[in-house]
């Protein structure tokens, strides 16, 4: 039995340890906590623009958005409240995120202390979770606050469950239910909490197992209402695939979680072999620990593994949308299991066990924390670049009110880091477009809303420039340069040569150049059936190329690559292989000399396969945006 002095010393050690854990998390996550807004953030920040009275407030809080989700607390209330007070200042958003994450880390520690009785395990668990590179987006991207808040409420509900099993006090039961029900306003993952509670009761308190059954009622009601009332998404990335592909998706998530493993072509890829070796080492150790303890009739290891499986389960059907932030909550289970192993090793007081646990945990923390920092710094740099650009555009508009702004040099990555969700409206800025020609280098992503709001016909842009009602801003080396005069010369030259040699899906003047078999334009693109035609002028001189830009929906490649045959006036130009799902298409066909002349030229496009979307009887092929003649390379 501990003396009072020993209890005080243990209390001081615990408080110092927890303080160190929170400070470590603050240091490690610091670049993410300084990151500016991006992508979906601007859609949520703009939500307050639609709130004018109590009725519109209810709409903003409860109307299904973002693939049919209704996350009242972690998205609606979070963004509405903070944006109304702080506007586009991102620091308060990150402050709320970090305080919530710090509470989650503390809850994880106290839960581990109750589950294992080990201070070492209790302090190791939040450290392992903090080091997981899979938390990068959750701590740096405000739109992923749902992961952080849901994690805190899940751990709070689980903490009260542990207390209630021990004490049977009504206050603990009330705390469990309050945190659990609040979780339905944060993230759909809350529906697995009853399974977590039942799994723990089965492993450590079987007499309590029946008492977990009422927890399934709200989860079942939520699931039924969600699928009955929320319309199914049309975004192919979010289509559910409840089939064998879920095993492949699980394998990928497991590798990502156990060794900071990423595919070789990922932005933040660490050495491929090193990631595999670490994943195999961690996997073997965790599986061996859980199996050995289960053989000894201690099933806590299986529970920790079950936490991972249960938390990753809801996203396994999303075969085409594998994201690291989906592992924020599943990573808690692996952190628990790893920390338990560390605690058991320290309890043995045997140097080989302690050294082995320390080396493996240290390797994971160093490797994963390195990956985490690389990713956080990338997000920080991207956010600063976007913030600087938007501030620069706002300054130019203030200096030149009423003028159209044409943006040149906007890359695909920059555009989809924020433009797609219209950040300019938050500053009251309008008439901002991509300089004609810039759009060819941007994936249209029609499932995200496309880029049509930023498209201006070249003729209209040319007229505005000639009248002095527009200016061109070019993004180069992170700077915003005024290049109106230089761009106007280029545009004049291009339009003089190619004005009759462009068919643009977004330009009404080009409508007559698309054959009758094309489907009507949608935003800035057109769907083609199996066969379609486009009429352009023949090249006026030899050495011209036909350049086609478009987009390939992922669903089209479900059965393998597509092949597109293109001919001009009966002359076969070539067969293009399309095998990049969800990517922009840029096809280049040199035009033979016999086509040069100046007459009209009919292009014929033929696909070897089409598909029909559910509820749509059309034969849908590829998406095309622009056909044009250019000087050959």
Molecular structure report:
Strands 5, 6, 8, 11 and 13 form a five-stranded antiparallel sheet that branches. About 1% of the residues have low confidence. The protein is elongated and about 100 Å long. With 633 residues, it is of the alpha+beta class. Helix 7 runs parallel beside helix 17. The longest helix is centred in the middle third of the chain and has 49 residues. Helix content is 50%, strand content 13%. It is built from 20 helices and 13 strands. The chain folds into three domains: 365 residues, no CATH class; 97 residues, no CATH class; 134 residues, Sandwich (Jelly Rolls). It starts with a helix and ends with a strand.
Key features?
633 residues, alpha+beta, Jelly Rolls, 3 domains, five-stranded antiparallel beta sheet, four-stranded mixed beta sheet, 13 strands
């Amino acid at each position: 039995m501990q003396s009072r002095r020993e209890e005080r010393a243990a209390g001081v050690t615990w408080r110092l340890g927890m303080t160190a854990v929170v400070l470590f998390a603050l240091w490690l996550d610091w670049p993410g906590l300084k990151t500016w807004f991006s992508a979906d953030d601007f859609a949520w920040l703009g939500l307050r623009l639609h709130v004018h009275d109590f009725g519109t407030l209810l709409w903003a809080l409860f109307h299904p958005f973002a693939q049919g989700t209704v996350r009242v607390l972690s998205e609606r209330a979070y963004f509405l409240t903070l944006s109304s007070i702080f506007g586009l200042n991102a620091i308060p958003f990150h402050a709320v995120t970090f305080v919530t994450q710090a509470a989650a880390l503390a809850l994880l520690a106290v839960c581990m202390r109750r589950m294992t009785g080990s201070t070492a395990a209790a302090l190791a668990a939040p450290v392992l979770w903090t080091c997981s590179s899979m938390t990068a987006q959750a701590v740096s991207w405000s739109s992923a606050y749902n992961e952080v808040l849901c994690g805190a409420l899940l751990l709070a509900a689980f903490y009260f469950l542990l207390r209630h099993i021990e004490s049977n006090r009504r206050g603990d039961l009330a705390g469990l239910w309050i945190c659990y029900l609040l979780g339905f306003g944060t993230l759909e993952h809350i529906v697995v909490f009853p399974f977590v509670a039942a799994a723990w009761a089965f492993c450590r308190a079987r007499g309590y197992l029946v008492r977990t059954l009422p927890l399934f009622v709200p989860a079942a009601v939520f699931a039924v209402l969600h699928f009955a009332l929320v319309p199914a998404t049309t975004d192919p990335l979010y289509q559910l695939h409840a089939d064998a592909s879920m095993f492949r998706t699980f394998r990928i998530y497991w590798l990502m979680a156990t060794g900071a493993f990423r595919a070789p072509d990922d932005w933040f890829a660490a050495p491929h072999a090193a990631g595999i070796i670490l994943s195999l080492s961690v996997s073997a150790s965790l599986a061996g620990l859980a199996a050995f303890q289960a053989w000894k009739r201690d099933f806590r290891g299986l529970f920790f593994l079950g936490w991972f499986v249960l938390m990753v389960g809801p996203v396994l059907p999303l075969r085409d949308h594998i994201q690291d932030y989906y592992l924020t909550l599943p990573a808690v289970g692996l952190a628990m299991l790893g920390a338990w192993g560390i605690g058991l090793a320290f309890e043995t007081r045997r140097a080989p066990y302690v050294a082995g646990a320390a080396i493996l945990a240290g390797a994971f923390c160093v490797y994963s924390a390195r990956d985490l920092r690389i990713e956080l710094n990338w997000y920080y740099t991207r956010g600063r670049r976007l913030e600087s650009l938007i501030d620069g555009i706002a300054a130019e508009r203030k200096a030149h009110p009423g003028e159209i702004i044409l943006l040149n040099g906007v890359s695909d990555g920059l555009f989809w880091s924020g433009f797609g969700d219209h950040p300019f409206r938050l500053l009251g800025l309008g008439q901002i477009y991509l300089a004609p020609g810039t759009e060819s280098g941007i994936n249209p992503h029609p499932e995200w809303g496309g880029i049509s709001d930023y498209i201006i016909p070249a003729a209209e842009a040319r007229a505005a420039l000639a009248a002095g009602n527009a200016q061109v801003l070019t993004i180069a080396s992170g700077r915003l340069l005024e290049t109106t005069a230089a761009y106007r010369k280029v545009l004049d030259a291009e339009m003089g040569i190619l004005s009759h040699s462009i068919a643009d899906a977004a330009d009404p003047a080009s409508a007559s150049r698309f054959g009758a078999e094309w489907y009507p334009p949608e935003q800035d693109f057109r769907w083609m059936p199996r066969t379609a035609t486009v009429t352009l002028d023949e090249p006026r001189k030899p050495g011209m190329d036909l350049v086609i830009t478009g987009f390939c929906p992922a669903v089209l490649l479900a059965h393998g690559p597509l092949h597109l045959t293109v001919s001009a006036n009966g002359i076969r130009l070539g067969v293009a292989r399309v095998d990049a799902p969800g990517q922009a298409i840029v096809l280049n066909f040199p035009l033979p000399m016999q086509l040069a002349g100046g007459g009209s030229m009919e292009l014929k496009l033929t696909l070897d396969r089409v598909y029909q979307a559910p509820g749509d009887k059309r034969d849908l092929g590829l998406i095309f945006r622009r056909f044009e003649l250019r000087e050959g390379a």
